[in-house]
Amino acid sequence: MGVTGTGTLEAPRSALADTVLARLVPAYAEAADPERAVAMRAYMKDVAPFLGLTTPVRRALTRTVLQGTPCPDEADCVAVALRCWGLPEREYHYFAVDYLRRHVTRCSSGLLPVARHLIATVSWWDTVDLLAAHVVGGLVTADPKLTADMDAWIADDDLWVARAALLHQLRHKERTDTDRLFAYCLRQSGHPDFFVRKAIGWCLREYAKTDPAAVRDFLARERGRFAPLSVREALKNIGV
Predict the structure, then answer these.
(1) Which of 44, 107, 122, 134 could make an SS bond with 74 (beta carbons 3.0 to 4.6 A apart)?
(2) Region 42-59: what's the mean pLDDT?
(3) Res 6: pLDDT
(4) Does pTM top 0.85 for this prediction?
């Protein structure tokens, strides 16, 4: 993996990625539904063009594409992800996210800059949230030193990077670093964007499934600092 003169990431050489992309692109393109693609693009606020593949169709095609392929190493994962991200249609990005989710345990902390690039490029909740919870969260679990990177992400000017920091512990349950979770929510409590405010409520609501008293106590002390949306989302399942 290298960095081009424009600051973008360059995919490493990977024979496995060559095979996967050679199968993937024609398989997805052949199943395209242009009429559905228009509706999907509109629903996702024109973030990217779509092929018009429904989720069941896409998953079935993905199984066929990956049939018989070996388990990847980290370079293969990076190559597949970056090459898919270089394609315009959103379904290829979904393939990349699913591929990384499936193989994140085969990757080191060196994958984190790649995940950040994907989060900050062609950004929308449909890819960012899965990358945050399943890829970034998995990397931080495997290498707790990456919490220092999360501390930097939560202060990032890119709202999607900040959202990813908020959501990276979404699946941690009893392993949640509660002090860091609450500190991140407070750090972004005044953010003007809907997606950051929503993420604050979401990560608190998810942790409330593990420790509702902690979330209630936190909001009893600090709710005046949060937007009503964040508070409403956080308390949705546990009441005041």
Answers:
(1) 107
(2) 98
(3) 35
(4) yes
